[in-house]
C-alpha cells in the first residue's frame, strides 16, 4: 500500500490551484440518470470516489467518456441495481437511488452500512422517497424501491442531510406535482446540483435556503457545466499555509463558501485576504487557540474539523473543538497524540492544549479528512512522518503531494 513520507519544517510559499469539488461532482454524475442526451461536466477531479462512481454508472448502463471533461449519457439505461461491492467502497453511491426510482420506477441499491466516522443511517432518504409515494422494502441487505410514478409531497427532514436532500431533490424533479423540502441542507453543493438540474429543465426554487420547492416535469435533457471549486481542498491549503508559517495564494476558490473557516483563522491570528478568484493566506506571528463547533452550512464544516484540530495543536492556549454532525469523527486524535499532541476527548468535544511541538511518526487514518489532518501535521512536525493507507487521501485530494511539493514541502509518495 502506498504511503506519504513527509519531512516537516518547511515554510510553504507560492500559488496553488484548487480542483473541482468532489461532493458536487458525485451528485451531478448521478443526476445524469434523469436525462436524455449527452451531459458534459468540465473540471471533474480525478479521484478515487469519482472512479468508483464511473464504475457504478457504467454498471447501470450509462455511457461514460473522458476524465476531467466527463461526458455521460443515460439514453440506454438498462439496469436498476447498485451492487454491494460498489456501494460498500463509497457511501455516496446511495445518490443513484432517487434518480433510478424517478426514471425507471424501480431501484435496488445495496444498503451502505456504517463507516469509520459514524453509523450514518439513510432513514431520511427512505422516508423522503416514501413520502413521494415509493414502496420500500429492505431485503437481503438491499433497498428495494418501487413507484410507477412519484407524486409531489411535503417533506420535513428531522436532521439536515446533504445527500438526503440531494437524493429527494433529484427524485422530485420527475414527480407529478409540487414537492416542498423543509429543513433542507443549504450546502453550496446542493445549490450547485439545483442549478444544474434547472439547466437540465427542472423547476426548482429556494436552493440555498432551508425550504426548496420543486415543480415536477416530464423529462430532463443533458447539459454542459463546469463544476464549482472544492471548498474543502481550498480550506486544507489555507491550513497548510497557517501551520507552516507560510503564505499561499489559493486559486479557483469561492471565498464566500469558506466564511466560517476564514473567520476562525482570522480569530486565530492568520491573515486571509480575497484576491482575484481566490484567497491569499498568510500565517501570523502568533497562532492563538480558538474554539470551533461543526454545524451544517453556513456553520463550520465537519469536513474541516480534523484539519483545524491539527492547527490548534500548535496554537498558544487551549481550544475546544466540538463535533456535532458525526458521532465518531475524532479518529485522528489518537494519531495526533502519537505525534506529541495534547488532546483530551470529552463526549463530542476535544480539548486541545496547544503551544507544544509535533514530532514526526508513522501514522495512519481510516477516513479521508483525518488523513489530510495527518499530512498537515507531518508538514509542521520535526523530523519524518509516514502516513500510511493513503488510498483514503486519494479518494478526495488529487495529486496532493505534487501540489504541496510545488509550494516547497518535502513530501513524496512511496509505492508499496
Ligand atoms: N443522517 C441521518 N439520517 C439520514 C441521513 C443522515 O440521521 O438519513 C445524519 C447523519 O448520520 C449525520 C447527519 O445526518 O449525523 C448529517 O449527515 P449527512 O447526510 O449530511 O452526510 P452525507 O450526506 O452522508 C455529506 C458529504 C460528507 C460530509 C457531510 C456533512 C457527500 C458525498 N458527502 O455526507 O463528506 O461530511 O455531508 O457535511 O456529499 C467527505 O467529503 O469527506 C465527507 C464525508
How would you summarize this macromolecular structure in one to three sentences?
It is built from 14 helices and 26 strands. It has 416 residues and is of the alpha/beta class. Strand 5 (63-65) and strand 6 (70-73) form a beta hairpin.
Helix % is 25-40%
Bin the strand percentage. 25-35%
Largest sheet: 4 strands, mixed
Low-confidence stretches: none
Q: List ligands, each type once.
A: uridine-diphosphate-2(N-acetylglucosaminyl) butyric acid
Radius of gyration: 21 Å
Structural class: alpha/beta
Q: Sum up the overall morphology in one term.
A: elongated
**How far apart are the first and last residues' alpha carbons, in Å?**
5 Å
Which strand order does the major sheet show?
24-25-1-26
- The number of strands is 26
Roughly what is the average pLDDT, rounded to an integer? 96
Number of helices: 14
Amino acid at each position: 500500500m502506498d504511503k506519504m513520507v513527509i519531512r516537516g519544517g518547511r515554510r510553504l510559499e507560492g500559488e496553488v490551484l484548487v480542483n473541482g469539488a468532489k461532493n458536487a461532482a458525485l451528485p451531478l454524475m448521478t443526476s445524469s440518470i434523469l436525462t436524455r442526451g449527452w451531459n458534459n461536466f468540465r473540471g471533474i477531479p480525478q479521484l478515487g470516489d469519482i472512479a468508483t462512481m464511473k464504475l457504478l454508472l457504467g454498471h447501470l448502463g450509462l455511457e461514460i467518456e473522458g476524465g476531467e471533461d466527463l461526458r455521460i449519457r443515460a439514453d440506454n439505461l438498462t439496469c436498476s441495481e447498485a451492487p454491494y461491492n460498489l456501494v460498500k467502497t463509497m457511501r455516496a453511491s446511495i445518490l443513484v437511488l432517487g434518480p433510478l426510482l424517478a426514471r425507471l420506477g424501480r431501484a435496488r441499491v445495496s444498503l451502505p452500512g456504517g463507516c469509520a466516522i459514524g453509523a450514518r443511517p439513510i432513514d431520511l432518504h427512505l422516508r423522503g422517497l416514501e413520502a413521494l409515494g415509493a414502496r420500500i422494502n429492505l431485503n437481503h441487505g438491499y433497498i428495494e424501491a418501487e413507484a410507477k410514478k412519484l407524486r409531489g409531497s411535503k417533506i420535513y427532514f428531522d436532521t439536515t442531510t446533504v445527500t438526503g436532500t440531494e437524493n429527494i431533490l433529484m427524485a422530485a424533479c420527475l414527480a407529478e406535482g409540487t414537492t416542498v423540502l423543509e429543513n433542507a441542507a443549504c450546502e453550496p453543493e446542493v445549490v450547485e446540483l439545483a442549478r444544474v438540474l434547472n439547466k437540465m429543465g427542472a423547476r426548482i426554487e429556494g436552493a440555498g435556503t432551508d425550504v426548496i420547492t420543486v415543480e415536477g416535469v416530464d423529462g430532463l435533457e443533458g447539459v454542459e457545466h463546469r463544476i464549482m471549486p472544492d471548498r474543502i481542498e481550498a480550506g486544507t491549503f489555507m491550513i497548510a499555509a497557517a501551520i507552516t508559517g507560510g503564505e499561499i495564494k489559493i486559486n479557483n476558490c469561492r471565498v464566500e463558501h469558506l466564511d466560517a473557516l476564514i473567520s476562525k483563522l482570522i480569530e486565530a491570528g492568520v491573515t486571509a485576504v480575497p484576491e482575484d478568484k481566490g484567497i491569499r493566506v498568510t500565517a501570523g506571528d502568533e497562532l492563538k487557540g480558538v474554539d470551533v463547533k461543526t454545524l451544517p452550512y453556513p456553520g463550520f464544516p465537519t469536513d474541516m474539523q480534523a484539519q483545524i484540530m491539527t492547527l490548534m495543536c500548535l496554537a498558544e492556549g487551549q481550544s475546544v473543538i466540538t463535533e456535532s454532525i458525526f458521532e465518531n469523527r475524532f479518529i485522528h486524535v489518537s494519531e495526533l497524540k502519537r505525534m506529541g499532541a495534547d488532546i483530551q476527548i470529552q463526549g463530542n468535544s476535544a480539548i486541545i492544549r496547544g503551544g507544544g511541538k509535533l514530532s514526526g511518526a508513522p501514522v495512519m487514518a481510516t477516513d479521508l479528512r483525518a488523513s489530510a489532518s495527518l499530512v498537515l501535521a507531518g508538514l509542521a512536525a520535526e523530523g519524518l512522518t509516514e502516513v500510511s493507507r493513503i488510498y483514503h487521501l486519494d479518494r478526495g485530494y488529487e495529486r496532493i503531494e505534487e501540489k504541496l511539493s510545488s509550494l516547497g514541502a518535502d513530501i513524496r509518495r512511496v509505492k508499496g
